[in-house]
Amino acid sequence: MFQRQSSNTPKQPLQVQKSQTDLSAWQIGRTTNGEKSVQNHQSPDVQKKDSEQESLKQALSYFEKVQDHVSLRKNLVLQKHLATVETIALQRGLPPEGFHVLLNVALNGKLADTVNTRLLKSLIPASVIPEDSVVSAVSWLCVSKCSSNIQLLFIRWLITMFDFIDCKEQLRALYGVFFYLLQDEKMCPYICHLLYLLTKKENVKPFRVRRLLDLQAKVGMQCHLQALLSLYKLFRPELVTITLPGKMKNFFRSAEGPWKAAINTIRRKNFPVHQPLVLGTAQPRSRKRKWNAQLIVPASSTNNLEESRGNNVGLYSTSLSFPVEQLQTFPQLLQNIHHLEFPSQMASVLTNPLLLHYMNCAKDESVYLRLYFWMSQALQEECTWCVADNHQNEEEFKIFLETVYKTECFLQEGFPSCEEFLYKSLPLWDGVCCQSQILRLVSWIPLSSFSEMKSQLYDPLAQLFFTSSLYFKCSVLESLTDLLQNWLSCHVFHPDSESESQVHSLNTTLSGLLNVVAELVHFVGRISTAALHLENNSCFLLHFILNFYETVCDMYLRYHLPLLILPPAGVFYPALVSMSPVSLNQLCYLMYRYRTNLVAAKENELSEKKTLQFNISSQTYHEYNQYVIAMVGCLWTSNVFQKDIHPQGLRMDDELLKTTRVQEFKTSFNIVYHPAMIGYAVTFLQQVMVQTNSWAFGSTRCGRKWNWYLEYLYAQGLKGLKVFIESSINRVSQAPVVKQRSMTQKT
C-alpha cells in the first residue's frame, strides 16, 4: 500500500479550506426567522425534513469533533449518528457541505473499519461533491492512516462519484500520486480506471509508459493496463510502440456496486424521466458517470460564464484548452476546434450538436475511445434483460437507447460498443423489451464478415422472427431494410472516377462488400418466404418485404454496386397473385426497376469503358426473363398456366385446371379479372355503362375501350403497373396483339 517513511513529527493531511456545514441550501421547504410564527402550521412532511436536517447537523458536528478511537459496539451516540447519516444518504443524498467532514473521519483512522466502511458506502450526493473535500481525502492516503481495504473502497467510491465532483483541476494535479498507487496489485485495476478518467495529453510521459509496460510484463496482458496504454498511445503514439487489441469487451471492473442502487433512487427523485433533454450550459447539479434523464454539458464551478463572455477575445487567444461548457455557437467551435477539452461525462456529448459536429469532422481517436469505454459500460450494466432485477429502469434505458440511436443517425455511423452490445444481448432478448429502440440500433450495425453476422445477428433474429407476432416480423424487415440502405450509403463509390492504379484495390475491397450484402439479401429472402407461409400471405407483411426489394433492385444504378438479386419465388408469386392492388403495383414497379438496372449493366459490360472485374450473373438475367414471362402471361396475354417456365411457377395442365370448375380460368389473373384489379374493373364498367348499355367485361380487351381502361387504371395511381406495361410490353397499333420484352443474356 502507498506509504512514506515516518518522521518524529506526525504528518498532517494537506490543509484545504474547510467547507461550511450550513445545510440551509440543502433543506427543502425551509423557513426563515420571519416565518417562525407559522411553524406550527407546517405540513408533517416539512416538519419531518426539518427534523432530518437538524439530526444531520448534529451527526456532522459529532463526527467533526471525534478525536480518539471510538468503539461502535457500546457507543449508542455513535450508532445513532451513523444511522442518521445512512438513512438520510440513502433517501435524499447528502449535501455538498457534509462530504469534507465524513471523508476526513472515514480516512483518518480514528474509527474502526466497520464504521469507516459504512460511512463510505453512505457518501451519496444529492447534488455535487466539492473538489476540496476530495483533495483533502486523497491527502489522507499519503499518511497511511487507514487500512488497505478502506483505501481501496475510497478509490472505488471516487471512480463511481467522479462525475459528481464539481471541478477536477486540483484532482488532476494529483495524477502522479494516483500513478504511484499502481504498484499495489489489489488496487491496480481501479487505479487504472481512475487514471483513465483523469488522463490528458500532458500526463503521458515516457517514464509512465515504461512503468505500465513493466507492469504488463510482470502480470500479463490485463485489460485495465491495455485500456490505459491504448489511451496513452492515442495521445502519444511515438511513446507506445507495442500492438494493442482493437476491441475489448470490458475495460475495467465495475466499481459502483455499493452505491449504484442508491444513486438510481436519488436520481429518479431529483431528475424525473419525463424532463426534457437540455443542451448548452447548465448549473452544477447531480451527474452520473453513465447517463440520466438530463444529459447536459456540466458547467465547471471554477469558471464564471458571465465573466468569460466579457473576456472572449483574451480567452480564445491565450487559453490552451477551451472548456466545452463555454461552447455556445458554431463560430466558437470553429475558432477553438484545436483547443477543445471534452467533459469527463461523455454522456453529455451525445446531446450536444456542436460536439457531435466536432467528432464528425476532427475524428479524434481519444474521444472515440473514451466514448467507446463509457458506452460499453453503460450498455452492459443498464441492460434491463441482461442484468437481474433491473426491470424498474426500463423507461430510462429506452430513453438512453433512443439518444444513442439519434447520435448514430447524426454521425451516420454505428458505434462499435453498440455492435458488441447487440451481439451479446440479442440471444437473451425476448423481442418485447425496448423493441423499437433495439431494432433501430440494429440498422446501424457496421458491416463485417458474414460468418460473424450469421452467428451473432442473423440466427438470434431468425429465432425471434419466426416465433413472434406479425407486427414484430414487419419491424424486423424494416430494420433490415434500413441496415442495407446504411451499408450501401456508407460504401457507395464511383468506379468511373477511379484511376487505373486504384482499380485493383477497389476489386479487392468490393469483393467482401458484395459477399456481405448478398448474404443479407438472401437471408431476408429466406425469412420472408417462410413468414408469408406462416402469416397466410399477409398483404401487410408483403408490403414490408417488397419495400426491402425496392432498395435491392436499384443497387446498381443508385449505389454503383455490381450486384442485383431478384426476390425468391416464394415472394414473387404471392405478390403476383395477391388480392392487394398495392402489392401488385409494388411488384410491377420492382420489375421495371430491375429491368432498368439490368439494361444499364448490360450496356456497361458491352462498352469499352474501364470497369471493375464484377459483372451481373447470367443467372440473374435468366431468372428475370422467367419472371417477366410469368407476369405478362398473367396480367396481359392470359396464358400464364401454359407459358410460365419457372420451376416454382404457375404452369398447370388444362385437365387439372378444369377440376377447379372455374369457367374462364385462363383469364383469371389478367388486369380485368385479377383479384387485386376486379374492383377497378367493376367501377370502370359502371362509369362506362352510363354512356353505353351494351358493354360487358369481355369487350374491354378491344381497341379504344381497352386504352380507356388502361388510362383509367393509371389515373388511379397505379404508376408501377403503368411503367411495367410500357417497358415490358410492345403494343402494336393499339391492337390486342402484344410482344413480350425480355432480357436476353448475350454470350
From TrEMBL:
One GO cellular component term noted in the UniProt record for this chain: inner kinetochore
Subcellular location: Chromosome, Centromere; Nucleus
Polar residues bias locations: 1-45
Pfam family of the protein (one): CENP-I
Chief location of this protein within or outside the cell: nucleus
Domain of life: Eukaryota
Region spans: Disordered: 1-51
Sorted UniProt keywords: Centromere, Chromosome, Nucleus
Nucleus found in the keyword field: yes
Record has Nucleus as a keyword: yes
GO biological process: CENP-A containing chromatin assembly; mitotic sister chromatid segregation
Family: Belongs to the CENP-I/CTF3 family.
Protein name per the record: CENPI protein
Species per Swiss-Prot/TrEMBL record: Indicator maculatus (spotted honeyguide)
Lineage: Eukaryota, Metazoa, Chordata, Craniata, Vertebrata
Gene: Cenpi
